[in-house]
Amino acid sequence: MRGAAVTLRHELIGLSGVLERNAYLVKRYAWWELAFFVWSLANTLTIVFIAKGVEAAGGKIDVDRATTTLLIGAVIWSYLGVVFEILTETVAWERWEGTIEYTFMAPLARPIHLIGMGVFAVVYGVIRTAVLFAVIAGFFSLSLGGANFAAALVVLAVASVSFIGIGMMTAVLPLISPEKGMQMGFIAQGILLVISGVYYPVSVLPQWMQWLSTISPATYALRGMRHAILNGDGVTALWGDIWPLIVIGVVAIPLGLFIFGVGERHAKRHGKLKRSG
Amino acid sequence: MFAVEVHNLRKEFFRRDADRSGLRRRRRRVAALEGASFSMERGECVAILGQNGSGKSTLVRLLSTLLLPDGGSARIFGHDVFAEQRTVQRLVNRVSVEASFFKKMSSEENLSYAARFYGMTAGETRERIPEILERVGFPVRRRHEGMEHLSRGMQQKVALARALLTSPVLLLLDEPTTGLDPRSKLEVQQFIREIWVSHDATILLCTHDLAEAEALADRVGILDRGRLLCLEPADELKARFRAETLEEAFFAATGREFEEEQEDEDAERGVFA
Description:
The complex is a heterodimer of chains A (277) and B (273).
Chain A: H1 2-28, H2 30-56, H3 63-97, H4 100-104, H5 110-139, H6 149-171, H7 173-176, H8 181-194, H9 207-213, H10 217-231, H11 239-270
Helix pairs in contact in A: 1-5, 2-3, 2-5, 3-5, 3-6, 3-8, 3-10, 5-6, 6-8, 6-10, 6-11, 10-11
Chain B: E1 4-21, E2 24-40, E3 45-49, H1 56-63, E4 71-76, E5 79-80, H2 85-91, E6 92-95, H3 107-116, H4 122-135, H5 152-165, E7 170-174, H6 182-199, E8 202-207, H7 210-216, E9 219-224, E10 227-232, H8 234-240, H9 246-254, H10 264-272
Parallel strand pairs in B: 3-8, 3-9, 6-7, 7-8
Antiparallel strand pairs in B: 1-2, 1-4, 4-5, 9-10
Helix pairs in contact in B: 3-4, 3-5, 4-5
């Protein structure tokens, strides 16, 4: 019993080390963080302006509602990008800095290591996404008085468990392909969002894509957050979107850990767990 | 119980040939380590001599749990390196040829990060890091500077501090002084000697520096093309090959000069090792 408590304490200290290191890196690269935020801002604006563009072209739409719908899609896109990028850096950044061998020979359980990266990704992603959302909402003077942001946050938090699981699966790719593995995270992000109704209802998709959308956590995250922000729905009303997210999360985390474990063993077998390819 | 016990340890890597056989390129086995067997007593310092691509780094990476073997066994203080990885990881640390740090982070931040993985809290590292940096001869007042602003010699001292911070009972040193200027090299060697005496550590030193091996180690082994040819005290090694220097002994054991140009096959091993 005491042995288990000591082990747990060590693991939690290790997890705090992962969070601490990421915080140091954000601090040290603060100006780059600002530059990437400006890029996210510009990217989001290009999407959100589409609502005004449709109106200018003669389309009859509720511009505020369409703008908010697009804004939610764009910030989720950005959020998912941050989560996948940070998780992929579990390997990619360490390899680039040359620290990968020291980190992977340290006595920290890989699930704790990956969960530490995931927790940081979610905390950092939520803060960044909230600021992005507030700036764009202010830019378009969106009226969000009836929005239930607490419920939206609950949906995002539950969805994040699945996103971390999927991120773990993509995080192992730089171990297998040091040159191109990192980009696979972007591919996963794109595929996930295209089938999940990022800027449109899932019903406009072909039938086979609609079927795929039912196993994508982003589908429920986008729909739930839109209902919470546009209609002010609470957690009870959003249960239909929350329970599938819980189910997908329960499957995604063990699956992500399993796939990362397989990748790590492959890398150890083929000598790829090292600083250069 | 031996500190290190390696028996018939083998590691091969695959390499794709440039020539195609049909649609597929053929894969060729490159043996990085071929049946290495040796043991080390607790508190012993053993140097393994070998050229680039001889299998030194492969041996260190196997003992560091960074590689899985193709055959044989390795035990560290009785624990199977490949079946009890977490236990072994707590006992071992290493210093390699590249210092390897997060370059924008300071030495203190890098050391804190490394120490957390070994269960050391912020309270413990706050006092311990300045102490250990002072011991390795690093100017403590510079511990807040980014690693990118430190010289190579300074970085290697921080690497030694990182390894010592976790109090390993087995220290794996993989060419720790390669590329350092003569003064830094001497300082690092003096420090290795000091920690060996004061720290009760067992040290496996892989190097291609003959003088370093002779000065630091109880026993010297010659690793050539993945094969451990011999392992004995430097004087006995020289006597066995009727050589006056370790370089001559190396030549007698391997049939080639120590600094001889590598053959293609050795260069290939170097890519993996």
